[in-house]
Design goal:
With 275 residues, the protein is α/β, with parallel strands linked by helices. It contains 8 helices and 11 strands. Strand 4 and strand 5 form a beta hairpin.
């Protein structure tokens, strides 16, 4: 496995997948390949923010986002999500009051990790309006977008109108196909000005993905891969059913019903334990 060389097949596989699975048209020149999406997040911080800037997270959220923000000396602005009817929800009235004016970026997790929420189009519209009110760039991590429970439909943030000039999309097949060790992810930027800034930092740091990951994704993002994912989602749904039944039978425990992902989130508060 030498250098990958011509990446047109790889980028073509990504554009095919996003169009056929999510109804999202992606141009090949919008795609940057990073060393996974934690690296992609760190690259967005490096390219678009500076030390001391506020970075908004709807919490709880994937732990690596806080880790890279702290390491980069950004100010974490944690907007806590309330639980309503057993699911995490968005509370923009509270979060509007929380903003101090130094916030520059919102890192969105869609579908949500760890709560498993699939955000509705109406909720994503509200996220977009929140970002516009506070002049925030949106980094939308959509790594779990293909792992949906029956009846769920993921809406890419890129399909929300009026935010292309402030939107950075992050996708990957690594969670879907259990190849996270390949360390390959996509940062997809439609806006030319944002794309130029990101590309300049990629070039300055000499970053490029490994050829193993590019070959894997090219193979996975295919009709055969799509059929496999359909079977996988049915399998995960049954696992979730068995898990929920078992957990909810234990006094003091309650699992959060999944709409997406293969993860589980369990409320232990009924046990009286505090940690």
């Amino acid at each position: 496995y030498g250098y990958f060389g011509d990446d047109s097949g790889y980028k073509g596989a990504i554009t095919w997948w996003m169009q056929n699975r999510h109804g999202w048209t992606v141009e090949p020149e919008w795609i940057f390949s990073t060393h996974g999406l934690v690296n992609g997040t760190a690259m967005c911080l490096d390219a678009f923010t500076k030390e001391g800037d506020g970075i908004v997270l709807f919490t709880p959220i994937y732990h690596a986002f806080a880790k890279v923000n702290r390491a980069a000396n950004r100010d974490l602005v944690q907007c806590e999500m309330p639980i309503v009817d057993g699911h995490y929800t968005l509370d923009f009235d509270a979060w509007d009051a929380q903003m101090q004016g130094h916030e520059k970026m919102l890192i969105l997790c869609s579908p949500h990790n760890p709560g498993g929420r699939v955000w509705t189009r109406q909720e994503l519209d509200s996220v977009a309006e929140f970002a516009k009110r506070h002049d925030l760039l949106i980094v939308s991590d959509e790594i779990h977008a293909d792992l949906l429970m029956p009846g769920q439909r993921h809406v890419p943030m890129a399909l929300i109108e009026g935010i292309s000039d402030r939107l950075i999309m992050m996708t990957a097949g690594t969670k879907t196909f259990n190849i996270a060790g390949a360390h390959v992810g996509n940062v997809i930027i439609a806006d030319e000005a944002l794309r130029a800034r990101f590309g300049a930092r990629m070039m300055a740091l000499g970053l490029s993905p490994n050829s193993f990951g590019l070959h894997m994704i090219t193979a996975a993002y295919s009709p055969d891969g799509a059929a496999w994912v359909d079977d996988l989602c049915a399998y995960l749904a049954e696992n979730a059913r068995v898990f929920d039944a078992g957990i909810n039978a234990i006094p003091g425990l309650r699992s959060m019903p999944l709409q997406s992902t293969y993860l589980a989130w369990v409320d232990f508060s009924g046990t009286g334990m505090t940690r």
